[in-house]
Amino acid sequence: MTDHPTGQPAAADSDENRRQVLYWRLLARLFDPEEQAGLESASLAVVEDIGLPPALLDPQTSVDAVVQRHPELAAEFDGLMVPEPDEEGRDRAAEVRRAALVSKVLLNVFATGSGTVTAGQLARWQSDAGWLERALGCAPGDLRGGRAGRGAGPGIGGGPGGAGGGVSPTGTGADHPTPDLGTLVPAIGPELGALEADLVKRMHLREVLADPRLAAQLTPSMSLIEQLLRDKNNLSGVALANAKALIRRFVDEVAEVLRTQVEKASVGALDRSVPPKRTFRNLDLDRTIWKNLTNWDPEQERLYVDRLYYRHTARKTTPQRLIVVVDQSGSMVDSMVNCTILASIFAGLPKVDVHLIAYDTQALDLTPWVSDPFETLLRTNLGGGTDGTVAMALAQPKIAEPRNTVVVWISDFYEWRSEPLFESMAAIHRSGAKFIPVGSVTSSGRGSVNPWFRERFKDLGTPVVSGHIRKLVHELKTFLA
Fold this sequence. Notes:
Rossmann fold, 18 helices, 8 strands
């Protein structure tokens, strides 16, 4: 082996060239689905030379299929693009291997093609997107769900330049630093969501739902639920039954996550003014023994109990009224789904009286169904414009005791009659009720808010809560505790 004038082995140049070949092929396939014969043959030679399966170069083969045939690769995909601690020197041969695996994940996720999409193709893409999330240090679904992964750091792929050297075909690490994963992780989530939404729109969804075999291949997602809710009035028979089953599956999955978040939030202090319930579950055995030790009979070796002691479990709570008003226009679908589920969870808490109102240009009081988010969503009508004054007309009469009332208003606040609506909201705030304007409670935390309303809410002392739904959970639990 001969050395370069720089002192680096010539083999290092060979590895760098092979890495660049793989990334040039990736870029070529992303921007032009047609094969570039030279890059394809060169990439095949590289992959075979480093002992990886040629299936990594086949865009039609899912990552799942590759891992099923070669289970030893599963561990390599996990955390593949997460930065590693800086180390002396660089394992250029390992970078070539990593480039091949990174290229596979990125190509499968971002090269979505055009034309009609089948249920199987959507399911495969969702699975591949899950592998990308795992490669970035997240759990499958986390990026599309807006929760940042654990891999925030200086670059993608390990150290300066990363073990995979990022996705630049010409970068050499220190000279071409890779993007900050802390910035990339939250940024890529909405893009994955947009890709998924596009795939769902390209499906012949009604035909898929009418076929139980194809419908069973669908993986519930926010994009899919949006399409089902928009099209539910055009479905019947088997198609409608399959659509309802998918909506219920999604609602149950999201509800489980949100319920955990609500339970983890703070609760009220123990209320010692309320006598403890005299049930076996509340029996304080240690205290009972301690208080009755004077009744110990050493001859019979028995403890005679004069009095039982019980634990206090009642919490200091005041009956609270929670009024949730949610914009159900086309731009607020994610918020509509999340808030409907969240309202049902709070409705199940003791001493919380929950009311739910949905509106576009008309308002609908969904309170009778608030405990069942599935039934609530089936009664919504997505789309149309926005006129919050019609919802205000339903909400204001519900505020009987302002000090014990919280009004959560979820919208992007692009309203038809802005001035009168804001004045009504300001009046609620001045009455002593807690008014919480929410710009987005989406899974991703992404959403725009009318700047006119944003500034006025800030001046009023009720800034817009915008971001992940966990923020709203925290706000509500703080008020209700």
